């Protein structure tokens, strides 16, 4: 049975008779024997196998080149070499699959741009191995965070008939072929359907029964913005709480980000060390800061005032009624406050229909959490629970009531104040790893013009 490199390198005792299977990172030949650096993806480090020329299977050594897959049986013994506690004294070698000189990951130091063109092979590099292991641990931590607080994980549909965010960034789902004479009602669902941009509306229905729920799944946006923070397919975590107001929502968002930063510090290990060395030397300090210090909380109007009084000339002049642009978000978090900042009470005009209207009639109980380096990682709100106001909001945003009858029912029958938010899982990963581009924290990124894998 195969033993993982991670377990062998973490061993306290020598282990005779183990089998290691992985990919050759490098081979060095000495007189009468060779060193194979083997990586099996279980951890950042390689295990060094020492293969004697007399070892059964050693005749395959010349073909055990970088990228080849191998099985090595042997004994784990204390290594005389510096920098590694253990090495494997091979008793048998088997080449599983060779890799010739065209293998693209021969040398270190490829650019991230180049690695994106070989998304199927880049997980074999140190950096991307670390990113995808971190992604897995973080997903687990997300579930632990919510499950330990009695949130119930719910599965909301991926195919939906509603545009939750009302931004019109929907991918159509259809079986129509575009033949002449085809009618809309001939479509598979008998109505227009889309890939979901958010599971929120359905999560609200579940929260208004189960109390506290969360979703964690893929979402899709046909947003034609080719930025380092936007993907057409990304994962979102959406908690939704009945009997909760905006204050409670902001508290949960802050507790969540702190818990994720703490988790990264506590479990990041060698992968975190790699990000610190090669991606962002301030990463650990930033994570510690996020864990220790309270976030700044300001209203949107205060944020606009700060931006207007900053003396900065922004490309988009900050003005009430305008969305905060990435340059504004960065100024607030990176220069003015130098801390994660929660901005709340946005103008009604720039936020979706479901947000609760404030008494001033012109702002809604929205909140966005902005972090240095990325900007918005979380967007959420207290929901409008008053039937008549919600109807008015629909009209205000030019939406037909008809499509939202089921959603209005939640206000017709036993309505309660409730609130929630959405976290972009990839943006969270960017924040916790220091990776600067969303394309580098998702294995096979989908962005405008790119779906090749
Ligand atoms: O702010 P958004 O649009 O909020 C919603 O969808 C709400 N329905 C969430 C809720 O209240 N339940 O999106 C939430 C988060 C953003 O803050 C951002 O982190 C991420 O989703 N996000 C994206 N991430 C990657 N690529 C994109 N194109 C993204 N659009 C949003
Ligand atoms: Mg948003």
CATH architecture of the largest domain: 2-Layer Sandwich
- According to CATH, the fold-level topology of the largest domain is BirA Bifunctional Protein, domain 2
Cα-to-Cα separation, first versus last residue? 32 Å
Name the helix and strand elements from N-terminus to C-terminus, one letter apiece. Answer: HEEEEEHHEEEEHEEHHHEHHEEEHHEH
Helix run count? 12
Determine the mean pLDDT: 96
CATH class of the largest domain: Alpha Beta
What structural class do helix, strand and pairing data support?
A: alpha+beta
* Ligand catalogue: 4-amino-1,4-dioxobutan-2-aminium adenosine-5'-monophosphate, magnesium ion
In total, how many domains does the architecture comprise? Answer: 2
The major beta sheet can be summarized as: 8 strands, mixed
Strand content: 25-35%
| Strand element count | 16
DSSP helix fraction: 25-40%
Model description:
Helix content is 29%, strand content 25%. With 453 residues, the protein is α+β, with helices and mostly antiparallel strands. It folds into two domains: 5-97, OB fold (Dihydrolipoamide Acetyltransferase, E2P) (Beta Barrel); 122-440, Bira Bifunctional Protein, Domain 2 (BirA Bifunctional Protein, domain 2). It has an eight-stranded mixed β-sheet with strand order 6-10-11-16-15-14-13-12, with helices on both faces. A five-stranded mixed β-barrel has the order 1-2-3-5-4. Strand 1 and strand 2 (33-39) form a beta hairpin. Helix 3 crosses helix 5 (246-267). The relative contact order is 0.11. The structure holds 4-amino-1,4-dioxobutan-2-aminium adenosine-5'-monophosphate and magnesium ion. Magnesium ion is lined by residues 368, 376, 379. 4-amino-1,4-dioxobutan-2-aminium adenosine-5'-monophosphate is lined by residues 164-165, 198, 200, 221, 223, 230-231, 234, 236, 238, 376-381, 420-422, 424, 426-427, 438.
């Amino acid at each position: 049975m195969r033993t993982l490199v991670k377990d062998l390198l973490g061993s306290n005792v020598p282990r005779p008779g183990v089998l290691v299977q992985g990919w050759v990172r490098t081979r060095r030949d000495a007189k009468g024997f060779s060193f194979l650096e083997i990586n099996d993806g279980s951890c950042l480090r390689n295990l060094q196998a020492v293969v004697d020329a007399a070892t059964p299977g050693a005749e395959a050594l010349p073909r055990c080149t970088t990228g080849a897959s191998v099985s090595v049986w042997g004994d784990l013994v204390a290594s005389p070499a510096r920098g590694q506690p253990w090495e494997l004294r091979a008793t048998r070698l088997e080449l599983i699959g060779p890799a010739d000189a065209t293998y693209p990951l021969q040398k270190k130091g490829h650019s991230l741009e180049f690695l994106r063109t070989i998304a199927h092979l880049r997980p074999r590099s140190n950096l991307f191995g670390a990113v995808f292991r971190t992604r897995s641990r973080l997903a687990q931590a997300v579930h632990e965070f919510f499950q330990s607080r009695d949130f119930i994980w719910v599965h909301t549909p991926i195919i939906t008939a509603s545009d939750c965010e009302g931004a019109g960034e929907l991918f159509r789902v259809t079986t129509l072929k575009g033949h002449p004479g085809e009618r809309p009602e001939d479509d598979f669902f008998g109505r227009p359907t889309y890939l979901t941009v958010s599971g929120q509306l359905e999560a609200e229905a579940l929260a208004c029964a189960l109390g506290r729920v969360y979703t964690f799944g893929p979402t899709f946006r046909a947003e034609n913005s080719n930025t380092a923070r936007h993907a057409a397919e990304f994962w979102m975590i959406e908690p939704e709480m009945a009997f909760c107001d905006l204050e409670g929502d902001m508290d949960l968002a802050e507790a969540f980000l702190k818990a994720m930063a703490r988790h990264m510090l506590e479990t990041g290990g060698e992968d975190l060390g790699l990000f610190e060395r090669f991606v962002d030397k301030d990463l650990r300090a930033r994570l510690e800061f996020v864990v220790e210090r309270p976030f700044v909380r300001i209203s949107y109007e205060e944020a606009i005032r700060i931006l207007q009084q900053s003396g900065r000339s922004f490309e988009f002049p900050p003005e009430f009624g305008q969305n905060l642009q990435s340059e504004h978000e960065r100024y607030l978090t990176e220069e003015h406050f130098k801390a994660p900042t929660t901005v709340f009470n946005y103008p009604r005009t720039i936020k979706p229909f479901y947000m609760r209207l404030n008494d001033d009639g012109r702002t809604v109980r929205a909140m966005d959490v902005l972090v240095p380096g990325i900007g918005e990682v979380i967007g959420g709100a207290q929901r409008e629970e008053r039937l008549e106001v919600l109807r008015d909001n629909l009209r205000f945003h030019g939406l037909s009531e008809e499509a939202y009858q089921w959603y209005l029912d939640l206000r017709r029958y036993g309505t309660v104040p409730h609130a929630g938010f959405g976290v972009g899982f990839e943006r969270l990963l960017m924040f916790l790893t220091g990776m600067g581009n969303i394309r580098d924290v998702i294995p096979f990124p989908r962005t405008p013009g790119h779906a090749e894998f």
